[in-house]
Amino acid sequence: MQSKEIRRLLAGFRRFRTRYFDPDSSIYRRLQGGQTPKTLMIACSDSRVDPAILADASPGEMFVVRNVANLVPPFESGGTYHGVSAAIEFAVVNLRVENIVILGHRQCGGIRSLMQNENPVQGSFVGQWMQIAAPAREKVLRDNDAADEDVLCRQCELESIAISIDNLRTFPFVQTAIAEGRLSLHGAYFDLESGELYEFDHDSRVFNSLHIE
């Protein structure tokens, strides 16, 4: 027997199908020929921060990668499985997206676990993954030694976005696309407590509130 939650999700799918597969709708007829998104969005897996909902995006508008704490690992040629790196490559090389947006958010559980535990628990996938943002943790602790944990977590949430943008620049195909003038990198931060959105300034490396009419 299906649970109440699964039945609710199926009802949602029926509404989705009615909206986008209605005979009068051309959205999925157009998308059957392939996808041509202009933006790669790298966001957190947090259930409160769905990038398509936040941007009110239609199907086909964004190519989305979600992971714990919206992190981008640095480029490396070794190893075996690189899901995030593979998605970035596909978006830049095959889909030729024009923008990559790193979308961070307030109350990130991955960042909080990093701030609370300097050394990951052996065998923890989350702990090992969060080491990508270890430089952000070190900088925040160095610059805010008197701050409480909540402030430290917020600062690390912001700084980790900058780290991921730096890591994006280590990928050869990203470097090539930027040099050719066909790709831009962006950082954004959604404060789910206030509903505000902040944009990363590459020159000053600070986040400024976006005034959205």
Mean pLDDT over the residues: 94
Briefly, what CATH class of the largest domain? Alpha Beta
In the predicted model, the low-confidence regions spanning at least 5 consecutive residues are none
Q: What is the chain-wise order of helices and strands? A: HHEHEHEHHHHHEEE
Number of strands: 6
Strand order of the largest sheet: 2-1-3-4-5-6
- Counted by DSSP, the helix tally is 9
Helix content: 40-55%
Distance between the termini: 47 Å
> What is the name of the CATH superfamily of the largest domain?
Carbonic anhydrase
User: Can you tell me the CATH architecture of the largest domain?
Assistant: 3-Layer(aba) Sandwich
Largest sheet: 6 strands, mixed
What class would the helix/strand composition place it in?
A: alpha/beta
Radius of gyration: 19 Å
CATH topology-level name of the largest domain: Beta-carbonic Anhydrase, Chain A
Strand residue percentage: 15-25%
Provide a concise account of the structure shown.
The chain is of the alpha/beta class and 213 residues long. It is built from 9 helices and 6 strands; from the N terminus they run ααβαβαβαααααβββ.
Task: Describe this structure as you would to a colleague.
The chain is globular, with a radius of gyration of 19 Å. It has 2 domains: 1-34, no CATH class; 36-209, Carbonic anhydrase (Beta-carbonic Anhydrase, Chain A, 3-Layer(aba) Sandwich). It is built from 9 helices and 6 strands. The mean pLDDT is 94. The chain has a 6-stranded mixed sheet with strand order 2-1-3-4-5-6, with helices on one face. With 213 residues, it is of the alpha/beta class. Strand 1 (39-44), helix 3 and strand 2 form a beta-alpha-beta unit. The chain is 42% helix and 17% strand. Helix 5 (109-116) packs across helix 8 and helix 7 packs across helix 8 (149-168).
